[in-house]
Write a structure and sequence with these properties.
mainly alpha; MetI-like fold
Amino acid sequence: MMTTQQAVMTAQRASRRAKSTPVLRLIGRGFTYLFLSFGALLMLFPFAWMISLSLGSMNDLWAIPPRYIPESPSLGNYYTALFEFPFMRYIRNTLVITGASMVGQLLSSTAGAYSFARLRWKGRDLVFILVLGTMMMPPQVTLIPTYVIWRILGALDTYAPLIIPGYLGSAFLTFLARQYFFSIPLELEDAARVDGCGFFSTYFRIMLPLAVPLMITLGLFSFVGHWNDFFGPLIYLTTPDKYNIQLGLMSFRGQYVTDVPALMAASVMVLMPTLVIFLFGQQYFIRSVVLSGLKG
């Protein structure tokens, strides 16, 4: 049996542990926030440095010690990027490529995902595994045969090689959409079938309206991929008037010198659409990823 003195000592130790637990928890949380803040600063430093250079001059770039704040901040580099280079033409070309490709990827990927998630047909799982297998194949492996095919079709130096593949779907977007469609109750599809809806009517009238967060997420992935695409236009486009914005940034590089402040100003403007779209679509992005079963 426990004596009275032992019981008192046990109660005192429990009381000390209860008092120390919130303190330890607070210290641990403080270290966590400190570590995350340090990591965030490391990630934000290149962007801050880019903005600083876009407001400065070549003298600020080569100054020793480095000037993190320009000596005479100015928006002149943004004027140079906008009006002394065909910046708006590159933006227009990029919007054409990105918009057309996004429409194709959203329609083809969600249609394929609906088939893999809801329809029953022979060999469905095997075909889905083969689709996922294409994600493991680097695009450089198929670059030469793909280039030869487009050359035979006479589509080089056009936007066709950059837009048409989007209408053939994306393995990753199809996988993400398939997981999301699994989260939609089957009762809704059964009710639509009772009302006389076929597969296409169910897809357009039931599935897509319920998949708004998914569509925003897929659109975000597709937009970022095509907006930042450098390799594809570099391979297939040869006429400078058809360049997208990523190839257009190379025009800031001269034969002997590169206008780095103007290049940084153009890079800031190129980054802004992606940043704004992500900020406005962040809640839908998180929601769709959670519902698709990809959360950690």
